[in-house]
Amino acid sequence: MSKVETIYLKDYKKSEFTVKTCDLVFELFEEYAQVTNLMHIIKVDKNSKDLLLNSVDLELIEIYLDDVKLNESRYIIEKEHLRVLDVGDEFKLIIINKIYPQLNSELEGLYKSGSIFCTQNEPEGFRRITPYIDRPDVMAVFRTTLVADRERYPILLSNGNRETNFKLDDKRHGATWFDPHPKPSYLFALVAGDLGVIQDKFVTKSGKYARLYIYTDKGNESKCKHAMKSLKESMKWDEDVYGREYDLDLYNIVAVDSFNMGAMENKGLNIFNSAYVLADEDSATDGNFMAIQSVIAHEYFHNWTGNRITCRDWFQLTLKEGLTVFRDQCFSADLNSKEVKRIEDVRALRERQFVEDGSPTAHPIQPDSYMTINNFYTATVYEKGAEVIRMIYTLLGEEKYRKATDLYFETFDSQAVRTDDFLWAMSKAGGIDLKQFERWYHQSGTPKLQVDEKFEEGKYTLTLTQIIPNAVDGSEQKPYYFPLKMALLDDSGKEIEAKTLTISKESEDFVFKTNLKPILSINRDFSAPIIVEQAENNYAFLMKHDKNSFVRYESAQSFGVATMEALMRGEAIDEAFVKAYGHILGSELDLSFKALLLELPSVTALMQRQEEVDFEPIYEAKEKLEKHLAAAFEDKLLEIYTQNHKPLCKELDAKSMGERSIKNRCLKLLSALKSDKIIETANAQYNDSITMTDRVVALDILENIAPLHAKVSQEHFYKRYKNDTLVMNKYFSLLASSQREGVLERVAALQNDDAYNELVPNLVRSLIGSFSRNYKYFHAKEGLGYKFVVDKIIDIDKINPQMASGLAGAFKIYEKLNSVNKKLMRAELERVVSEPSISKNVYEIVSKIIKIS
Ligand code: BES
Ligand code: ZN
């Protein structure tokens, strides 16, 4: 691959034309679809002559300008555009073209998922449907007519409200939909299929009715209840917390099996990956239920933060995504456990975003250039973006933050805006200057905060120094402005002082009057997305005594890290850690929180701290520590297990989920002993439990410590669920994550399994994606893991470039590897970039990783 064009934010120009209305007619057939697109277009820049429409693979039938058919001298079909020459100030343009949804394996634009026609247009899919000014700041009112076979496609949906249904002949029928809200093309959607549905309603706070529908393949209707409940919870929450009401009579959600991402917020017609809709206790884990609740909320919240107010251009993506993730995080925190949710969010941020931030693909939450915007739906834009909004929330406080979001909605409703506009509202209603804070939008990398403490005669001095990494291009970056929640504790854990410091300088002293030497509790609630580096530590104390649950968790993690690093240096296990661990085991705590406190640091967490990643010592240390803890606390762990193991309970309340999470944590730790007793216990759990949560934990343990039992239970599981693709995802991912020998061979063979299908992104992520996160085998010394995944990337790139570039994410760790792995990985990655037909999606990621341009 050569020369890929880079797009820069600084080159942004207003559109020369705008679309007032867009009336679309889709005639859907088994081989192709015909699209008739009638646009009312207005010239904004009177100096422009030609109208340039985005268009990919255009098969044009006819064009009419103000009802006059254009001959070929009046337009040019360019590589990615349709150019209509010399147009007037205001005109009607009709374009008729043909597309092939059945052949669309990229899953962008109009495609087929099984027997369902559906669309995915964010960010630039619409141009694959019909020529259009396909950019988010061009907002039009859409009317959509669908015509299709009545028997195969009884359900015909698009955005907004249904205007008419009609019968054409005895075979075909149609429907027209009208969406009164002007919107960018990326929010356009249609669906046609033979679908089952569940129905409900919601009365908004001003008394308006909204009818709610969730569509799915027939037979799955009963699995939509949790999603429906979550939708109503989301609607209520957005009214209560942000004062935002729903604005259409109808809210449709459609679940499809083939989807590149999680879900999409199309106005009035959300399209979801079925993994984030369908669930019952027999087939979904507690984690799945939680994820459904949060994704449903996320897409619902976009109705205001994304749809009513959208992005001016794709560089502003975090305007809607960062903010909406923050909103869905708060929603889940309010409906479940605040403490647990915060810890889980931070953990996810560190596992994915910190890794990205430390790699050559690091970018600010608002990037200033890209090759493919599809590659920028990243953990940085999303999760770090959400942390940035959270910092604003912390700086302003609840009340002012609400005033500021009110001002944002009032001022920018129905506009396409920039992150600067959002910051303007925050600053104005919040009464603070956010000039320095803006750096969070334009700088990349994770800042470190060095903490130095000094205590002398009634005075405690805290010296905080920001260590700011350089940008990827080597340029220097400046200190940040952020809130830092902290407290000083006395030796009983009581707070002597608790406050939020505002950090803005590169280095600053904070002085506190106190007669006794305090214990520092810092970055409470993870108030800023930074890495704290402390010379002194009081992990054991804070694990026990801090009121702030995040700091308790953090201290347990840091203590775990320190203990494992000592082991890696050949030192003995620190008995103080074992004691602190035992103390948690014996404490009365919320069970889900307790399960988190008992989790040992991940391999990723340890890797990130190494100058040069070396995997083996990490696994060894982890295994050793697990064995030691399991042996030291065997009785206690079994006691907790027995107390909380309720195989016939499938309730989803906090208590039942807490019981499952603590007993499964105990069982997992015990499995380090590989004893007959634990194998029996896991086997019994697989056979007796009625929840998927319990069964996958048992299967996973058996897979790793008891091959013979594993074979039996896996066969049983496969037989029972082979037709349920969402469950098969779990099956493939469990096998691909196995720590047993021969994983690569098994993964390769599983590609031929009847339940596997390379066209379905969920299955590819479960099998190949999980393998690429299985460090032990992905990074195996001979480089066979790299070769396998690279072969798959090259294959899959031909089918679906977005899916392929997602898989390439596993290589982001390249720069940190030891020289042996690095050399092996580089050879494979060079193979990718020298592939002549490689997509720009994959090229962008891989060329940045190995730094060629
Ligand atoms: N707008 C995105 C979906 C999207 C973006 C789909 C680009 C395809 C291409 C949606 O709101 C979103 O962010 N979805 C997330 C899940 C969410 C809970 C973070 C996703 O699909 O991963
Ligand atoms: Zn989103």
Attribute tags:
single chain, 853 residues, alpha+beta, 8-stranded mixed β-sheet, 5-stranded mixed β-sheet, 22% strand, binds ligand BES, binds zinc ion
Architecture overview:
This protein is α+β, with helices and mostly antiparallel strands and 853 residues long. Helix content is 41%, strand content 22%. The protein has 27 helices and 31 strands. The strands form eight sheets. Strands 6-5-9-3-2-12-15-14 form an eight-stranded mixed beta sheet, with no helix packed on it. Strands 17-18-19-21-20 form a five-stranded mixed beta sheet, with helices on one face. Strands 10-11-16-13 form a four-stranded antiparallel beta sheet, with no helix packed on it. Helix 3 runs antiparallel to helix 4 and helix 18 packs antiparallel against helix 19. The radius of gyration is 28 Å and the shape is globular. The model has no long low-confidence stretch (mean pLDDT 97).
| Strand adjacency order, main sheet | 6-5-9-3-2-12-15-14
- Which blocks of ≥5 consecutive residues have pLDDT under 50? none
Tell me the distance between the termini: 10 Å
Heteromolecules bound: ligand BES, zinc ion
Extended strand count: 31
How much of the sequence lies in strands comes to 15-25%
The proportion of residues forming helix, as a percent range, comes to 40-55%
Category by helix and strand content: alpha+beta
The average pLDDT value, as a whole number, equals: 97
